[in-house]
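Incident log, structure service

09:12 report received: a user says their structure output differs between two submissions of the same chain.
09:20 pulled the input from the user's history:
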Amino acid sequence: MNKSKFPLNKAVLNDIIKDHEADLNNIGIRELKRLVDHLADHYKVDFLHFEFGVPGVPADKIGPQEEIRVLTEDKNLPSTYPPFDGIPRLKKATACFVKAFLNIDVEPENCIPTVGAMHGGFIAQAIAGRRFKTADTILYLDPGFPVNKLQTKFLGLKCDSIDLYNHRGAQLAKKLEKKLSTGKISAVLWSSPNNPTWLCLKDEELKLIGLLLTKYDVIGIEDS
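09:34 re-ran on a clean worker, output below:
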């Protein structure tokens, strides 16, 4: 990326936003992508798309190479259903990953591979919403991915939210505890990097969220 083009020229940026008739306070994910693509074309630079599941970072070669190796060595694999709770080798590798990066011991049997965050989030909401009869609400740290809320509605659960624009740090912890103390929240769902604003929660904020989730026995669901 050519740093000499940054910060972006405000007048040019405003003209492009005007051309797209975009309201940045209420812009959707796909509209934001079109806007950023326009900026990339205008300035001849590449942007990382944190509002999308594919940010534009080239895949490491180890992934495709391993897929080719496994498919080549096991001719029956493409026509075989995997175990419904995940391939044992992958479950074990997931447990090792959690230990290496989070220093948390998790049994492989408790590691359930999914086809993506949307799939995993749907299952997590379904489980969380049925743990306690009085806890029937998913609390969102907004803005977030709209489809998650459609999943909540589909599951027959209620939605509540905290706007991260107005609540960060200690203010976020204070607001979150007020919500959790009602006993109505079954899970808190957020994305960091945030989808679609690119906002990232700080380590201190994630720690505060974790402590409060533990205190009130509420499930945390991170779409990242």
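09:41 both user submissions now match this output. Likely a transient worker issue. Closing.
09:42 reviewer note: Residues 29-43 form the longest helix (15 residues). The chain has a mean pLDDT of 89.
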